[in-house]
Structure to design on (593 residues):
């Protein structure tokens, strides 16, 4: 449906979009996630033909947006960041205008009524857009995108300015639309993307930082092989610590063990990391049973999509690199999975994860 | 193009610009009609038409000021430029909406012709000659105004620059006389809107003037399309 190849957009020296490639299939809901200024809106504006790319190609339904813009655009319904509403018109006259502008062939009355019902704006059709609240303006913007039933919907931050119940409504609506439209949705709100999208692309500083389903990205970066365990030794003193660390290190598959703080008197937490493929939890349990130690707590370092997003986008990666080298290596190894582009080069040489790269 | 034409026509009236324009045109043409035509006891409306040049210089930028600048400011251009329509039809839709309103305003002269017909003889050939001279002048000015509107996001700036540019065109002859370099002087006089227009209102029908005004209109509409196109590449 949508194919984007090596898209670049430069503003002078600034690379707003730097070599982005992805494709979206029919009936897929793609979430475009990134902090402000990551290049989300720029990418969407290029996809819809509002601005041109510096280089690269965009195909909508197989039609190049630059070579045959009118045909390509007729396949797209676009809701920009700021809905393009003429505030001096009534909702009804505006929708009729967009209907004419898009040269829609569907029955006017029935089609507009259907769209107004979907977007729940039927009761404000006679009102001036100027007098509508932000939420209603957003819905009118969505309604105009739906006119002519385009196979591709591109929605730039569709829930901005809506109240919580409206947000849920719009999300439900987008999910519904996703059944027979291809939808690209941008947002910097994570739960939204998680709730609505089949697939997520995280962009940062103009490049794709991650691409996959929410579960995929989460699984890849959330490490089941990374956990914190609180073990009570037999002596309940600091001496236990070294013994436990060396015993844990001896377990097959454990890559890294570090004793953390003394959480209870004489009892320490241990950060354990293991190889991807091996679940060491049972081995740890049996070790403790044999030695007569007690596991008081076991916590997988459950990285939420939010953490991943924050880490990828806020430059924590830079910070990580400057901290102690062991930790740096491990964290970078974790990130190397699912992170493509610039980051790939930074994985240490001893990158053991075989599935590396981008899914 | 049709959709944009209809929307712009509607917007002229909801924004009140249409009323200002129509009233301004009627007021000044009426004034010149009563003073220079009825007052002088002649049935030829040419003096009124020549005086209207300067009025049009001030009125047309008001008509065109918000056509494209407001779209850019309110980001409604995103709706237009991502719709399956060509840039040319966007520009022409707006252009012809403004031109249509200008024609409506200008047609007030036919009311004056009724007044003249009541007490004298209307010379239709002169009247129509004048009418079309003004129409083509308006066509050229509107294209220039629309072009200026495409350059800015601020409609007041668009109006001020528009008035300035059209006023300079009005002054072109007087400026030309003071330029010592002969070929520049000749070029400016040849390009002069005012002297060409005055020739027409005197009943000298010159096809080259009509062609000149139409060419200006086409040229500036083309420039406007280029500005919109170039903005995508910025």
């Amino acid at each position: 449906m949508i194919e984007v190849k090596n898209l670049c957009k430069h503003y002078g020296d600034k690379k707003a979009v730097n070599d982005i490639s992805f494709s979206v299939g029919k009936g897929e809901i793609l979430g475009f996630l990134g902090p402000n200024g990551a290049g989300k809106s720029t990418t969407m504006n290029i996809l819809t033909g509002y601005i041109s790319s510096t280089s690269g190609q965009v195909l909508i339904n197989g039609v190049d947006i630059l070579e045959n813009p009118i045909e390509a655009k007729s396949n797209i319904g676009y809701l920009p960041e700021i809905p393009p509403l003429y505030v001096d018109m009534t909702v009804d006259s505006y929708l009729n205008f967009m209907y004419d502008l898009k040269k829609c062939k569907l029955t006017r009355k029935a089609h507009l009524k259907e769209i107004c019902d979907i977007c729940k704006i039927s009761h404000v059709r006679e009102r001036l857009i100027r007098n509508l609240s932000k939420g209603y303006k957003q819905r009118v913007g969505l309604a105009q995108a739906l006119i002519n039933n385009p196979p591709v919907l591109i929605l730039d931050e569709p829930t901005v300015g809506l109240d919580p119940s409206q947000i849920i409504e719009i999300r439900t609506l987008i999910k519904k639309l996703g059944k027979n439209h291809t939808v690209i949705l941008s947002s910097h709100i994570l739960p939204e993307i998680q709730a609505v999208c089949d697939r997520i692309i995280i962009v940062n500083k103009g490049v794709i930082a991650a691409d996959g389903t929410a579960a995929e990205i989460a699984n890849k970066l959330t490490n089941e092989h990374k956990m914190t365990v609180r073990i009570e030794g037999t002596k309940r003193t600091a001496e236990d610590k070294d013994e436990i660390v060396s015993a844990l290190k001896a377990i097959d598959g454990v890559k890294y063990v570090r004793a953390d703080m003394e959480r209870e008197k004489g009892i320490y937490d241990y950060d354990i990391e293991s190889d991807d493929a091996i679940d060491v939890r049972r081995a740890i349990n049996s070790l403790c049973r044999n030695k007569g130690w007690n596991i008081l707590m076991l916590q997988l370092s459950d990285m939420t999509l939010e953490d991943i997003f924050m880490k990828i986008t806020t430059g924590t990666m830079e910070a990580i690199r400057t901290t102690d080298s062991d930790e740096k290596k491990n964290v970078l190894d974790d990130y190397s999975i699912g992170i493509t582009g610039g980051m790939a080069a930074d994985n240490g040489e001893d990158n053991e994860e075989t599935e590396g790269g981008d899914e | 193009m049709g959709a944009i034409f209809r929307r712009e026509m509607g917007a002229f009236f909801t924004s009140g610009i249409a009323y200002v324009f129509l009233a301004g045109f009627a007021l000044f043409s009426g004034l010149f009609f009563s003073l220079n035509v009825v007052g002088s006891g002649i049935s030829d409306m040419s003096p009124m038409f020549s005086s209207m040049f300067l009025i049009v210089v001030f009125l047309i930028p008001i008509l065109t000021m918000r056509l494209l600048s407001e779209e850019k400011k309110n980001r409604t251009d995103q709706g237009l430029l991502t719709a399956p329509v060509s840039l040319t039809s966007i520009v022409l839709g707006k252009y012809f909406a403004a031109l249509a309103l200008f024609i409506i305003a200008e047609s007030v002269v036919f009311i004056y012709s009724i007044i003249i017909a009541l007490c004298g003889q209307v010379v239709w050939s002169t009247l129509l000659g004048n009418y079309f001279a003004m129409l083509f002048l308006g066509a050229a000015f509107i294209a220039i105004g629309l072009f200026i509107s495409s350059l800015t996001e601020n409609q007041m700036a668009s109006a001020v620059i528009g008035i300035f540019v059209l006023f300079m065109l009005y002054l072109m002859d007087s400026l030309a006389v003071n330029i010592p370099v002969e070929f520049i002087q000749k070029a400016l006089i040849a390009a002069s809107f005012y002297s060409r227009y005055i020739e027409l209102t005197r009943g000298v029908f010159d096809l080259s003037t009509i062609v000149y005004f139409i060419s200006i209109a086409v040229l500036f509409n083309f420039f406007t399309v280029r500005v919109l196109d170039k903005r995508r590449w910025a």
Notes: The longest helix of chain A spans residues 164-177. Residues 316-359 of chain A have pLDDT under 50 and may be disordered. Chain A touches chain B at residues 11, 45, 48-52, 69-71, 73-74, 76, 78, 80, 82, 84-89, 93, 97-98, 100-103, 144 (CB under 8 Å). DSSP finds 13 helices and 14 strands in chain A.
